[in-house]
Design brief:
By secondary structure, the chain is mainly α. It is built from twelve helices and no strands. The protein has a domain of 166 residues.
Length: 250
């Protein structure tokens, strides 16, 4: 028999895909979206302990020995893992995980001059549809339209970031209190962890509140104390050099 059916059109050949409601998708994975304190604490404490142990191992090992090089690599990876929790803190609901936030700032955020307030608000704006990819997005730069030389320069600027962070908290913190007009500029232009160096916090996003001030003061006290101890010969200069190299790598 001859088949008199017409060949199927391209439209008919398309697989049928039923639109899946976003609300239902959220409902299915809701249990996975609830932060688990045990996971946060165990993950962070393991890596920060490993990172600082590797730091001091590298610090006291013979120069360029396998022990020092191996410890350096471990320190970079472990401390990077620890530092990246700043992203989690930005997403956690305000008022939750207070003890975790405090401990993270004391043994990770402050020593690396990236207290959690520097990412607070900046990253949240990055997720807003009307901000993402615009000049108001501090975590976006149009690298695809940049010249290769500009991108190379941007990467090389990474070597200045640790020094800039230290200067921000050790120098600008006290000076900004002595010069009130500078205070607003510091909060607006030098208090955000971004990839866009021209980023400015919106006026209504500047929270010069007690918690931010405490974090800022902690970074100032820590940084100034370490620098002073190195200056007076209590700590060797290698303490700062190793901190710098690890920070640059991270």
């Amino acid at each position: 028999m001859n088949d008199t059916r017409q060949p199927a059109t391209a439209e008919e050949n398309k697989p049928y895909v039923k639109e899946f409601p976003l609300r239902e998708a959220h409902h299915l994975v809701r249990d996975l979206m609830t932060p688990n304190p045990w996971i946060y604490w165990s993950d962070f404490l393991f890596h920060i302990t490993l990172g600082w142990a590797a730091y001091f191992t590298a610090l006291f090992s013979p120069l360029f020995s396998l022990w020092q090089l191996g410890s350096f690599v471990v320190a970079v990876l472990a401390l990077y893992r620890s530092a990246i929790f700043v992203h989690e803190l930005a997403h956690l609901k305000k008022g939750t995980f207070r003890n975790f936030r405090l401990v993270w700032n004391i043994i990770c955020g402050v020593p690396f001059m990236i207290p959690s307030f520097t990412y607070d608000g900046v990253h949240n704006d990055h997720h807003k549809p009307d901000v993402y990819g615009t000049t108001a997005d501090g975590e976006y730069l149009p690298f695809a339209t940049r010249k290769p030389a500009e991108m190379v320069i941007y990467v090389l600027l990474s070597f200045l970031i640790p020094v800039a962070l230290a200067a921000r908290f050790v120098l600008l913190t006290p000076v900004s209190y002595l010069i009130p007009p500078l205070r607003r500029i510091v909060w607006e232009r030098a208090s955000s962890l971004t990839i866009d160096p021209t980023y400015r916090r919106a006026p209504d996003a500047i929270r010069n509140d007690l918690n931010w001030q405490q974090q800022e003061l902690g970074a100032f006290v820590f940084g100034a104390s370490v620098i002073a101890l190195v200056w007076f010969g209590v700590f060797p200069l290698s303490v700062l050099i190793l901190w710098y190299l690890i920070a640059v790598s991270v």
